[in-house]
Write a structure and sequence with these properties.
The complex is a heterodimer. By secondary structure, chain A is α+β, with helices and mostly antiparallel strands. Helices cover about 20% and strands about 20% of the residues of chain A. The chains are: A alpha+beta, B mainly alpha. At the A-B interface, helix 1 of A face helix 2, helix 5 and helix 6 of B.
């Protein structure tokens, strides 16, 4: 009987375990996969991220130099970040804010000329 | 009073997932509950045959959110064994640590919901408060709270630094203290015992016949644990399965409670014995090509087995003996060793053997054949 009394008294004396959420927000830990970012200037549009993505949310157009990500389809697994040869993809610990409509990350980069063409010119 | 049969579910406000129960009631006491399962068929099995096996780790992890790491681990270990990949020892220990963390949080979740089910909401919140600390460990070490996504074919994607290991041990020390505080309320309380002791008895024979597994099986007196097969690093750590003999709700709760504490000890042991080294197996292009061919051959065989003729009415488990016709795209390895195809066939038969055998099996079978026709 009264097996919870100790816990109840301890809870009364300790501070609350929960937070008043919108006013007090908990920081995420380092290395948390919150959102996907790209440094488009470094990207060479190799398409590795597009091939390896399990949810197939990334579209890379090598000719046009565009990198697109369907944010609603992304599962934040971080496979693209691991696979990127130029390390231009990264994950930050902040969440993307709540959206009222479907979002697409669209980036336009500059397609780098091939080395052979550079040498020829 | 005459017996009344009350249908409960499949959609009901108290149910987290669809489940139909046919409850036989006599004098407000439930004397029989016949469940009907199979309302959630997401077609993940078919999806897994469609794309690259590396991409499927993330899909497999989403079979169940509570034990995502263990689903991924199971899938990766299966593929590694088929392909003959040697996983580094450190990766095995890391898998053990994260797998056991998942077990702790799963059991705490279960115990909390159990307390909530018999109306002890305060205990439910206490259990989930402890669980929150385990979720924090997961977020800090894996990058996410629930779907940790650390397993890949050949190893793990993250490593633990000595500082992180120390932090995990400190956090688990607090968890252990908190969990032990709940023992009095969960296992020794008069009102709780009144609702759990002698309720929902699953006898030892019945548990075996119905194919029970996990803590449910061990609560009925069977000393059998899947970890005894020695997957990840469990073969090196060594442990005794926790068994209770009564087969009632109380026994199953006690098994889970004691397993939670055992898991904490196993994590400590794994951290202490974890060797240094690589976290993922390194393979050259030839290895990858051979392993992929072997896996593809297996996928082909598997497809030929799971696709049933469209008008088949026979229940799944009484079907004809399984045969593995040779695949048109069989790998050179499969051609070389006949042992390989026999291994595949054996594996398939084992999978077939786990078809639902519960009292609701006929319903599940019908549902399954319908879905397979659609596929």
């Amino acid at each position: 009987m009264l097996s919870m009394t100790k816990n109840v008294l301890a809870n009364l004396l300790h501070k609350s375990s929960t937070r008043l959420y919108p006013f007090e927000v908990r920081e995420h830990f380092e290395g948390y996969r919150g959102r996907l970012d790209i440094n488009i200037d470094e990207c060479v549009f190799c398409g590795s991220c597009m091939l390896k993505c399990p949810s197939q949310c990334i579209t890379v157009d090598k000719k046009a130099g565009t990198w697109e990500c369907q944010v609603m389809s992304c599962v934040f697994c971080g496979v693209c970040v691991d696979i990127c040869p130029k390390k231009c993809l990264s994950m930050s610990k902040e969440h993307r804010s709540v959206a009222t409509e479907r979002q697409t990350m669209h980036y336009q980069g500059v397609v780098k000329a091939k080395k052979t063409e550079e040498a020829a010119s | 009073m005459a017996r009344t049969i009350l249908p409960f579910g499949p959609q009901h406000p108290v149910l987290p997932e669809p489940l139909h129960l046919k409850l036989t009631i006599e004098n407000e006491i439930i004397i029989e509950a016949v469940p009907t399962l199979g309302y959630v068929h997401r077609g993940l099995e078919t999806l897994c045959t469609k794309r690259d096996f590396n991409q499927m780790v993330q899909v497999v992890e989403r079979v169940c959110g509570i034990c995502s790491c263990l689903h991924g681990l199971c899938y990766c270990e299966g593929l590694e064994q088929m392909m003959g990949i040697e996983v580094p020892r450190r990766a095995k220990y890391l898998r053990t640590i994260w797998g056991e963390l998942h077990r702790i949080h799963s059991h705490l979740l279960w115990m909390g919901l159990m307390a909530d089910a018999f109306g002890f909401e305060s205990l439910f919140m206490q259990a989930w408060r402890v669980r929150e600390r385990v979720m924090d460990i997961m977020e800090a070490t894996c990058g996410n709270r629930v779907v940790v996504s650390v397993n890949v074919v050949g190893g793990v994607r993250r490593d633990l630094s000595p500082a992180q290991c120390q932090w995990i041990e400190d956090q688990l020390k607090i968890c252990e203290k908190e969990i032990k505080k709940l023992q009095g309320a969960l296992l020794n309380d008069y009102t709780v015992k009144k609702r759990t002791v002698g309720k929902g008895i699953l006898t030892k024979e019945k548990a075996y016949q119905l194919g029970a597994a996990g803590p449910t099986l061990r609560g009925s007196g069977w000393a059998q644990d899947a970890r005894q097969t020695g997957y990840a690093a469990f073969g090196e750590l060594g442990f005794e399965p926790i068994v209770e003999y009564d087969g009632d709700s109380y026994a199953r709760t006690a098994v889970r409670f004691r397993e939670t504490l055992q898991s904490i000890d196993l994590i400590r042991l794994a951290i202490a014995r974890m060797p240094a080294g690589e976290t993922a197996a390194k393979t050259d292009a030839a290895d990858v090509a051979q392993a992929t061919a072997a896996a593809e051959a297996h996928t082909q065989n598997w497809e030929s087995i799971v696709t049933f003729p469209p008008r088949r009415r026979r229940p799944i488990w009484t079907s004809r003996p399984v045969t593995c016709p040779s695949s048109p795209r069989a790998s050179p390895r499969a051609k070389r060793s006949p042992a390989w195809s026999s291994r595949v066939a054996k594996c398939c038969i084992t999978s077939r053997g786990t078809a639902p055998r519960t009292s609701s099996g006929f319903v599940s079978a019908r549902r399954h054949s319908r879905t397979s026709r659609l596929c």
